[in-house]
Amino acid sequence: MYRPNVAVVVLSKEYPHKKEIFLAQRNDLMDVWQFPQGGIDEGEEVLEALFRELEEEIGTNSVEIIAEFPEWLSYDFPPKIAETMKPFVGQRQRYFLVKLQDNAEINIQTAHPEFRDYKFVATDEILKLSASFKKDVYECVINYFKNEGLL
């Protein structure tokens, strides 16, 4: 069974002049950087989960939705993570491309911090920094938004 999840490719306030993407370093996995993401609660709409997860993980949900990936994408957890995520074997994700609004202030020191650090990177750096088990999905999403002329 795959956990329903929303994931967000967050563009800096400088978009479209600069195409920089937010990546955050996880607290629990050293040297693993990722997009903000999180589970969709029972009865919750995807967009509700998107705004809730952004607020919970990066301290702001002041974003403008630019685009949505047209289908659900899935990946399997590595065995070590799968043990802690039972009964789920992976995640089934809906991806969005959003831009931070001018008034947005990122604060990763939220009530339950998931990240230790963050930075904005060029698209070609994302796959170098992301977890191996997410690379295929990340590459698919980034290439889609590039082909759409958005990145």
Structure commentary:
The protein has a single domain, classed as Nucleoside Triphosphate Pyrophosphohydrolase. The model has no long low-confidence stretch (mean pLDDT 96). It contains four helices and eight strands. Strands 1, 4, 5, 6 and 7 form a five-stranded mixed β-sheet that branches. Strands 3-2-8 form a three-stranded antiparallel β-sheet. The protein is an alpha+beta fold and 151 residues long.
CATH architecture verdict:
Alpha-Beta Complex
**Secondary structure tally, helices:** 4
Which CATH top level class fits? Alpha Beta
Please name the CATH topology: Nucleoside Triphosphate Pyrophosphohydrolase
The SS-based structural class is alpha+beta
Q: Care to count the β-strands?
A: 8
Order of helices and strands: EEEEHEEHEEHH
Helical residue percent band = 25-40%
Task: Give the secondary structure arrangement, pairings included.
Blueprint: E1 2-11, E2 21-26, E3 33-34, E4 37-39, H1 46-58, E5 63-68, E6 73-76, H2 79-84, E7 90-100, E8 115-121, H3 123-129, H4 135-147
Parallel strand pairs: 1-7
Antiparallel strand pairs: 1-4, 2-3, 2-8, 5-7, 6-7
